[in-house]
């Protein structure tokens, strides 16, 4: 097990390296003079030179990347070209909000997804199953930002019971959590269903019935515990998508998280901030996947019959 | 033969189990009768597709959708099990009657320790607390001959060998002292040496508790070793029924004779080993006459046209020989001429 | 119990292409999910076709639009749905129905072209990695890991932010996002197919790699590619709409549905029809691709469950 973890950790190194490289190179995609784009048309030549100097844009690319990487290891993501604040200081408080938002989204996705997935599997090929699975594919097809807008229209504008924006109070959490969690719930419900159906015909489920275990315990204890294993992977992956889904959800509900920061930084052409936020989100995603891999491995060890 | 007048532990009459597929009803078990007394082992033998496993699952009421028991009665010590509600029957299952399965590798839940899987059955039926149930589980492991039971109880199924797992299955099945144990091919998946040990264990535990055993197998060797009475099934029907000595001395039905010849014997060269050609007819196109006629070397027009009944032979039986019942025209008065099977297949 | 002869699922089955196609169509029509998805999709495709043909063929007007999608009418702003303006008008008095009709071909174009480009590159890299293995495999799969480390629309967002917001840049960004998805699937399928007997036999007979790949491997990995393409178009349309909603995608006045939602959200308080109709259009189109993809998977992948 330790060897497995170590090997997976070693495999992370090239990926993390690559992520930073991609994030670094993205600025190189900017057509024309980066300094000009960032400083705006009105900037004087002296101002541009100053900016190039500050960002080290005059050095060769390799040197720039080396410095970028060196700073990154010291948790230094550079400074915002707008405010001059260290990017790390801008990102940190907002990152926490985004993670909170993603976690609340997870709560919705996992509870709703598992519930409907199990329901669907237990009532396989009945109206409840078809209804649930139709709902799931619709949930999967809905842009989450549109769902957010509908929720605002209904609960804030029509009923006036929930605030349209902000983050902190429990009322402010409800709609963003639903917005974030719906698509995830749909994915988890579909996965849970197919995983349950695979498990429910297994010999050990029959054994449980033969012991006199009640149908409810057969489903929730014996079948579900085994069906959960592949679902864990999906849940982990969903967390990653929630980090990116936060970009849209935060935008709809005016939540000052990392996602909103990225979009604002893009419109202000504040590339160091964009770079920093993208790197932080990607690295978080990589580590979440790493943890999911380990969890899957631990859970799966017992299953592995050979 | 002391068992004639007592109430049988299990009495199955006219059992019919069908599967309702999109292509129509498939009769997997079609009117099966048998009974088992306490301290007795009834072997049910047949090829795959004969309906023997469906019969055993029907007794446990473990037939899953789209299958359904459509007729007959199943009585446990005189109580009709098919009349019980689901909840009532769950109290019997694993308690008064229990079952072990063919695949010990997959029949235990991989995510729970074996001890907790035994204790679960104990807790459901005996209303013991967690600790007492665990102790009971350890005792059961000891009873089924697992060394270091305290330690093994904490292991997961994948940490045990196939033989050990089947012992655990037996421990689960017997943890509540059932009146009836159904063993569905309990040794098929195991090594030969382990097979003998498991059969020995079941026998030994039966002697201790006096339970009735239903031994489902395709292997007449297992029958010879364990059974008191035998039911031979073919295509969802009983084709022959006798006590074990009678059956082996004088198998009546050509199908039984074929099965006998299929047993590998040390005195016969393997090349001469006779198998029954052909396969069990599929329930979708069941012949209207004798279901074995297609594969039977002695079949006549009569056999193809009319369906024989299970009956005691009235024709073509040697004087002074005890026989069971069979479902074959040869042994009825409608068959004229001598018994073509005579001297063909006996297993002295 | 029944020891049926085990056919290796789906492989080695080489039916005549025509009967295979017919069989597939039959299955798709019998499957309620794909039938429904297919019907909606054909409906949208016809709308798109009508718009495109009307632009190409001068003097002919097949268009389903009742008004010009871009002409403003300041006297008739925020008109509610009526006989003249079926879905009402927007903040500039433009007919929302006509804008949605016109936007259909944009959305379908973005979704299919980004998936097509992504698939072509993905198949190429996947074949390279799967068929030639060794160093190719390591490099390509590591690169795919890196690109997939950016969750959801994050990578596309970063690329578009650098390239600048425009429809073509959205297509480029989403194509890049799709490449690793296809590369992984193709590689996996190639590895599965490569070692089955008939391919080995043909190889032993000295057939050229190109011949093996095009005549024997590609046809056998086509099923997962087709299934994934359908599902991926759905995801890509959602991502494109998300980018436009954030203001970094297709730019106004082009009536892309996501951009229309971005326009409408500011007026949602009094005029919800600006946000409701474009959202429904997105849901329906994405739903169509998702359901078709589900149906294709049921029909083409023997391992998937009903």
From TrEMBL, chain A:
Spell out the subcellular localization from the entry. Answer: Cell membrane
Membrane-protein topology: Multi-pass membrane protein
> Which keywords describe this protein according to UniProt?
Cell membrane, Ion transport, Membrane, Nickel, Nickel transport, Transmembrane, Transmembrane helix, Transport
Q: Does the keyword S-adenosyl-L-methionine apply?
A: no
TM region positions:
12-30, 101-123, 135-157, 169-189, 227-253, 273-292
Q: What is its main location?
A: membrane
Q: Where does the source fall among the domains of life?
A: Bacteria
The record places domain ABC transmembrane type-1 at 95-292
* InterPro entries in the cross-refs: BPD_transp_1_N, MetI-like, MetI-like_sf, Opp2B
User: Family assignment?
Assistant: Belongs to the binding-protein-dependent transport system permease family. OppBC subfamily.
Q: How does it assemble?
A: The complex is composed of two ATP-binding proteins (NikD and NikE), two transmembrane proteins (NikB and NikC) and a solute-binding protein (NikA).
> What name does this protein carry?
Nickel import system permease protein NikB
Q: Which organism is it from?
A: Geomicrobium sediminis
UniProtKB/TrEMBL annotation, chain C:
Q: Which domain of life is it from?
A: Bacteria
Keywords, A to Z, come to: Cell membrane, Membrane, Transmembrane, Transmembrane helix, Transport
Q: Has the keyword Transmembrane been applied to this entry?
A: yes
Q: Where in the cell is it found?
A: Cell membrane
Domain spans labelled ABC transmembrane type-1: 104-293
Q: What is this protein called?
A: Peptide/nickel transport system permease protein
The record's annotation in PROSITE patterns points to: ABC_TM1 (PS50928)
Organism annotation: Geomicrobium sediminis
Q: Which Pfam families match?
A: BPD_transp_1, OppC_N
Say where the protein is mainly found: membrane
Show the stretches that span the lipid bilayer. 35-57, 108-132, 144-164, 274-296
Specify the protein's topology with respect to the membrane. Multi-pass membrane protein
* Similarity comment: family membership: Belongs to the binding-protein-dependent transport system permease family.
């Amino acid at each position: 097990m330790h060897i497995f973890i170590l090997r997976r950790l070693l495999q992370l190194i090239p990926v993390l390296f690559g992520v930073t490289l991609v994030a670094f190179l993205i600025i190189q995609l900017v057509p024309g003079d980066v300094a000009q784009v960032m400083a705006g048309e009105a900037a004087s030549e002296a101002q541009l030179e100053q900016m190039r100097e500050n960002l080290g844009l005059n050095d060769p690319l390799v040197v720039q990347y080396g410095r970028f990487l060196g700073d990154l290891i010291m948790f230094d993501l550079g400074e915002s070209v707008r405010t001059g604040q260290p990017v790390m200081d801008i990102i940190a408080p907002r990152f926490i909000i985004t993670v909170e938002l993603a976690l609340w989204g997870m709560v919705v996705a996992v509870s709703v997804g598992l519930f409907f997935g199990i329901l669907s599997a237990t009532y396989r090929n009945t109206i409840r199953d078809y209804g649930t699975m139709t709902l799931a594919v619709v949930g999967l097809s809905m842009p989450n930002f549109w769902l957010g807008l509908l929720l605002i229209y209904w609960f804030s504008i029509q009923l006036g019971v929930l605030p349209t924006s902000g983050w902190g109070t429990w009322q402010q959490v409800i709609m963003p959590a639903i917005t974030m969690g719906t698509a995830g719930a749909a994915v988890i419900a579909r996965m849970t269903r197919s995983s349950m159906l695979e498990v429910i015909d297994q010999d050990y489920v029959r054994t449980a019935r033969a012991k006199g275990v009640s149908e409810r315990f057969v489903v929730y204890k014996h079948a579900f515990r085994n069906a959960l294993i592949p679902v864990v992977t999906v849940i982990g992956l969903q967390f990653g998508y929630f980090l990116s889904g936060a970009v849209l959800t935060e935008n709809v509900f005016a939540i000052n998280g990392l996602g909103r920061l990225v979009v604002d930084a893009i419109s202000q052409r504040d590339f160091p901030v964009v770079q920093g936020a993208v790197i932080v989100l990607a690295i978080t995603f990589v580590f979440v996947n790493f943890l999911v891999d380990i969890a899957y491995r631990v859970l799966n060890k017992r299953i592995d019959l050979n | 033969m002391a068992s004639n007048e007592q109430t049988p532990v299990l009495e199955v009459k006219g059992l019919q189990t069908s599967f309702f597929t999109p292509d129509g009803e498939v009769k997997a078990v079609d009117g099966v009768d048998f009974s088992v007394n306490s301290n007795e082992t009834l072997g049910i033998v047949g090829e795959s597709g004969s309906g023997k496993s469906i019969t055993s699952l029907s007794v446990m009421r473990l037939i899953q959708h789209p299958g359904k028991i459509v007729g007959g009665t199943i009585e446990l010590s005189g109580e009709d099990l098919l009349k019980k509600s689901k909840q009532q029957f769950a109290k019997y299952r694993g308690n008064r009657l229990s079952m072990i399965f063919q695949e010990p590798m997959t029949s235990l839940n991989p995510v729970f320790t074996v001890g907790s899987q035994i204790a679960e059955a104990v807790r459901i039926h005996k209303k013991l607390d967690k600790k007492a149930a665990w102790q009971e589980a350890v005792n059961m492991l000891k009873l089924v001959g697992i060394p270091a039971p305290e330690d093994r109880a904490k292991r997961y199924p994948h940490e045990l060998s196939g033989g050990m797992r089947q012992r655990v299955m037996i421990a689960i099945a017997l943890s509540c002292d059932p009146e009836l144990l159904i063993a569905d091919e309990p040794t098929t998946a195991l090594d030969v040496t382990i097979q003998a040990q498991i059969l020995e264990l079941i026998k030994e535990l039966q002697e201790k508790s006096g339970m009735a055993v239903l031994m489902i197998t395709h292997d007449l060797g297992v029958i010879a070793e364990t059974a008191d009475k035998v039911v031979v099934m073919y295509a969802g029907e009983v084709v022959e029924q006798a006590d074990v000595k009678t059956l082996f001395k004088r198998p009546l039905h050509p199908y039984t004779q074929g099965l006998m010849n299929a047993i590998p014997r040390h005195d016969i060269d393997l090349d001469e080993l006779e198998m029954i050609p052909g396969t069990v007819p599929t329930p979708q196109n069941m012949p209207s006459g004798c279901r074995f006629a297609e594969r039977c070397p002695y079949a006549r027009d009569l056999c193809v046209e009319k369906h024989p009944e299970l009956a005691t032979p009235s024709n073509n039986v040697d004087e002074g020989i005890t026989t069971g019942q069979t479902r074959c025209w040869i042994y009825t008065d409608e068959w004229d001429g001598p018994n073509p099977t005579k001297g063909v297949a006996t297993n002295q | 119990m029944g020891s049926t002869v085990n056919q290796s699922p789906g492989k080695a089955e080489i039916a005549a292409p025509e009967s295979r196609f017919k069989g597939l169509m039959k299955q798709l029509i019998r499957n309620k999910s794909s039938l429904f998805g297919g019907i909606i999709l054909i409906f949208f495709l016809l709308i798109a076709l009508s718009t495109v043909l009307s632009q190409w063929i001068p003097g002919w007007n097949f268009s389903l639009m009742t008004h010009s999608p871009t002409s403003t009418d300041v006297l008739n702003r925020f008109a509610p749905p009526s006989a003249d303006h079926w879905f009402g008008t927007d903040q500039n008095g433009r007919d929302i129905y006509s804008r949605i009709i016109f936007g259909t071909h944009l959305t379908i174009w973005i979704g299919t072209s980004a998936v097509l480009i992504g698939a072509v590159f993905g198949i190429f890299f996947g074949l390279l990695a799967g068929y030639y293995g060794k160093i190719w495999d390591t490099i390509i799969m590591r690169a795919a890991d890196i690109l997939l480390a950016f969750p959801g629309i994050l990578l596309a967002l970063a690329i578009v932010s650098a390239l600048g917001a425009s429809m073509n840049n959205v297509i480029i960004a989403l194509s890049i996002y799709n490449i690793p998805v296809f590369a992984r699937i193709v590689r996996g399928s190639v590895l599965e197919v490569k070692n089955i007997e008939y391919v080995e036999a043909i190889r032993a007979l000295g057939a050229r790699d190109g011949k093996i790949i095009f005549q024997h491997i590609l046809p056998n990995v086509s099923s997962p590619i087709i299934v994934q393409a359908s599902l991926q178009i759905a995801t890509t349309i959602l991502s494109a709409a998300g980018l436009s909603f954030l203001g970094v995608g297709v730019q106004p006045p082009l009536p892309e549905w996501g951009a229309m939602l971005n326009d409408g959200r500011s007026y949602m308080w009094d005029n919800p029809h600006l946000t409701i109709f474009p959202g429904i259009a997105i849901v329906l189109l994405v739903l169509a691709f998702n359901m078709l993809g589900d149906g294709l998977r049921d029909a083409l992948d023997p391992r998937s469950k009903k």
